[in-house]
Specification:
single chain; alpha/beta; 3 strands
Length: 80
């Protein structure tokens, strides 16, 4: 990640299985879909209500945009 000029704590990652654990522990924002294994969900800041492939990535994107204050302007851009 440093090759791109982005520190690990500035990145996010969504994982659902045991091989994802090392990466999830290194990033600044760890997320999981509802159907992730319990070990993954236990260390994530956000667990989607949706299963993988059924809206979980969208849930994460919406949460990030809302945290950044970018959600409402985005919605408004579709209404105008």
């Amino acid at each position: 990640m440093l090759k791109l000029g982005v520190r690990e704590e500035e990145t996010g990652f969504m994982g659902d299985d045991l091989p994802d654990l090392p990466i999830l522990r290194r990033v600044g924002f760890a997320a999981a879909p509802q159907d992730a294994v319990s070990e993954v969900k236990a260390i994530c800041e956000f667990v989607s209500r949706s299963h993988g492939g059924h809206g979980a990535a969208r849930d994460v994107a919406e949460r990030i945009l809302k945290a950044q204050g970018r959600w409402n302007p985005l919605v408004e851009s579709y209404l105008t």
